[in-house]
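Researcher: I'm preparing a figure for a lab meeting and need a structural model of a single chain. I don't have an experimental structure, so a prediction will have to do for now. The sequence is pasted below. Please return the structure as C-alpha cells so I can convert it later.
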Amino acid sequence: MNNKEKYTQFIKQKAQELGFSYCGVSQATFLEEEAPRLESWLKNNMHGEMKYMENHFDKRLDPRLLVPGAKSVVSLLLNYFPAQQQNPNAYKISKYAYGEDYHFIIKDKLKDLLHFINDEIGAVDGRVFVDSAPVLDKAWAAKSGLGWVGKNNNLIRKSHGSFFFVAELIIDLELMYDTATTNHCGSCTACIDACPTQAIESPYVVNGSKCISYLTIELKDAIPNEFAGKLDDWMYGCDVCQDVCPWNRFATPHNEPLFQPKPELINYNNQQWTDLTNELFNEIFKKSAVKRTKFSGLMRNVTFLNYKNNKK
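Model: Understood. Here is the structure written out cell by cell.
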C-alpha cells in the first residue's frame, strides 16, 4: 500500500469514528460543468435577495483559490433524518433544524479530523467548510462518489436517500480519488410535481427565490402575497421535495444525540406556535439553526400562515 492509499484509508476511518455517515475524496480542480450553470442561475436572479451568492464566483468553482496548494477535497455526509416527527397537524419545521445547529457540530468534527490528519501524517494545510463559505458542496460530494445531484438539487444516495448534511475538508495532500456515481432520478418528476410554489422550474433548476426555505429563512422582507396559501404550513424551511423522493424510503434515523428535538418542537400545535413568546422561542430553539430567522422572523411566518392560508 502506497502513502496515498494509506492516508486515504486513514482519513475515511477517522471520519467514520467521528460519526460521519460517508466520506469521499476528489481532486481539487476547477468545476468546469458547474461554471455555466452557476452563471446562468445568478444571471436569472434565482438567488433572490441572497446577494452573497454573487460574491467569490471564482472561489466557488476552484478550491485552490480557497486553500493555496490544495490537492484534495474530502467530502463528508452526516445523516440528520429524525426518528420522531412533528405533530402532523402543526406548522412545520424542516427536519435539519430539529436539534442543535449543525454548523457548530460538524465544524467541531471536521476540526478534529484535521487534527488527526496532522498528528498522523504531519503538517497538512487545510480548511474546513460547513455550508458557510463559497463552496459548491453538493457538486464536490457528487464528484467524490457520495451520490448524485437530483432534479431537486439535493444530493441523493441509492442506499439512504438525501437527508444528509454535506461538509468539506480541503487540504494540500494528494490522496486516492473516488469516481462519481451515476444519476438514478430517471423519468421521475415527484419533486417537481409536489413543490408547492413550483420552485423547481425544470429538472435540476431550482429558482431559489420561489423556494419555501428561502421565503421563510433567507427573505428578510414581507413574504409576497403571491405565495398566500402556498407555503404548505411550513414555518421554517421545507422538506417537500425530499419527503416525496422515492429514494428517501431508505432513509434511516440518525444517531447523533445533539440532533434530538425538544419535546415542544415535536408536540406543539398551531395555537401554541401562534402564542409563542420571545422567551419560549429562546428556550425551545437554544443553539438551534432556527435562531437564524430570529423570533420576529418566525412569527412573521406564523402570522402569514395564519392569515393567508384561506386565500388560495
